[in-house]
Amino acid sequence: MSEEKLYLYPMWLRLWHWTNALLFLVLIITGLSLQYSGVEGAFIRFDIAVTYHNIAGIILTISFAFFLVANRISGNRKFYKVKRKGFIKRLMKQFRYYIYGVFVGEPKPYPVSEKRKFNPLQKLSYIVVMFGFMPLIIITGFGLLFPEINLENVFGVAGIYLTVLLHITVGFGLSVFMIVHIYFCTFGKTVGSEFKSMFTGWH
Ligand code: HEM
Questions:
Q1: CB half-sphere exposure, 103, CA atoms < 13 A
Q2: Partner of 191 at 20 to 30 A CA spacing, among 25, 58, 98, 101?
């Protein structure tokens, strides 16, 4: 049975998505340079890495706000809603498909339709990333941009130290997400079909 053609990724979403992906690449590269090299002999000159990291972070904040507003206005947010009853069971079914079913040619347990853009695992990961990790990385990023807004002392530990720790940990989590996300995007009809959809809008 061939799936019908669906327009799932409107222009605003595609623009947001690729802007976001590009900003992530800049943030990861400059972030790694800041993390793993000293002021001397840095992979990217320290002051340049700081400037690009800050600018990309500010644009990311604006684009994230745009994502939230546009999701609400366009109705795209309905795809992120979770019916709690039976969700774990659906997650396990999708997980089983990814580790077994896909390799023996089983049909997708939750194929894309007009009402269901994401399978349960996609839904969970997008929710955690977009409504958990993204706000956290942005808030802690601003904490580092304006150090005076951090709590001075949290149970005997300098507030800014906790902010750095959280920023780096969430940044690491988001980097891992991006790699896993790209890998799972190859599970479409062909290896490249999902990527093509995010450019044309059509699934
Ligand atoms: C070069 C990096 C990236 C590539 C190649 C990529 C690729 C894709 C593709 C092909 C899709 C459509 C298939 C699907 O819905 O799963 C998609 C959707 C999505 N991606 Fe990415 N992505 C990248 C980076 C990111 C990053 C960094 C984030 C967030 C931090 C992200 C968040 C999302 C979200 C939320 C969707 C679903 C959007 C919606 O339809 O509402 N992506 N991505």
A1: 5
A2: 25
